[in-house]
Design goal:
Keywords: Acyltransferase, Transferase
Protein name: Putative acetyltransferase
Structural class: alpha+beta
Family: Belongs to the acetyltransferase family. RimJ subfamily.
Strand order of the largest sheet: 1-2-3-4-5-6-7-9-8
Order of helices and strands: EEEHHHHEEEHEHEEH
Strand content: 25-35%
Pfam family, one: Acetyltransf_3
GO molecular function: protein-N-terminal-alanine acetyltransferase activity
Number of helices: 7
Distance between the termini: 7 Å
Largest sheet: 9 strands, mixed
CATH class of one domain: Alpha Beta
């Protein structure tokens, strides 16, 4: 069975290390972002420009400028501050202890709603090997467990079939189409809205992956 290793003094379920889950590519874990991640983050983001740019919000300046190592410390400071406030959970996805992507849970709301959105990306060199699916499963279980959420949303462009497959493998269902929802790559793009609630997860998302043969517990 996988583990949750949580720190003290933070928001519910944060900081935490999640996993492991073993996939055909190797062992997948999630850990909090670190200030020393800047160099690897920059290298991965620049190398994956062609695979990430079509799906991510429009930014100011060129992709290369926005993803220089010097851009990481201020971004990390914002992520760390919002994580302490309990509005975001920023994780690094590791494969066999190597940084290969990120998973973020954002816009966390409490009270009567108890919801958030979930997003993720993985190095294109490791695409199609079940890494994102395993990472999302770990994130879902953490959100519906220690974090105490009831609902998770995910938005995906209709052309992004790979990301849709990840969500469907976990049990997310499509709720509708958000027309001209987000400014992506300098155009307002439609997005499909997917959602999952705690009642729809039988046991845990990680256990469901193991039962389906897509992963195993180490």
């Amino acid at each position: 069975m996988f583990r949750w290793l949580s720190g003290s003094g933070g928001s519910p379920g944060w900081p935490a290390t999640l996993g492991p889950l073993r996939t055909k590519a190797g062992t997948v874990t999630l850990r909090p972002v670190k200030v020393r991640d800047g160099k690897t983050w920059s290298e991965l983001r620049i190398r994956n420009q062609n695979s990430l740019l079509p799906w991510e919000p429009t930014g100011v300046g060129s992709w290369a400028d926005r993803h220089q190592p010097a851009s990481w410390p201020p971004l990390f400071a914002v992520l760390k501050s919002e994580a302490k406030r309990g509005t975001i959970l920023p994780f690094v996805i590791e494969l066999d202890d190597q940084y290969v992507g990120q998973l973020t849970v954002g816009n966390i709301q409490r009270g009567a709603v108890r919801s958030a959105w979930i997003g993720y990306w993985v190095d294109n060199a490791h695409a199609g090997q079940g890494i994102a699916t395993a990472a999302v499963a770990l994130g879902v279980d953490h959100c519906f467990g220690p974090v105490g959420l009831h609902r998770l949303d995910a938005t995906v462009q209709p052309a992004n079939e790979a990301s849709q497959k990840v969500l469907k493998n976990i049990g997310f269902r499509q709720e509708g189409l958000l027309v001209r929802y987000m400014d992506v790559n300098k155009r307002w793009r439609d997005h499909m809205l997917f959602a999952l609630t705690a009642e729809e997860v039988v046991g845990s998302a990680a256990e469901a992956l193991v039962r389906s043969g897509r992963a195993s517990f180490r």
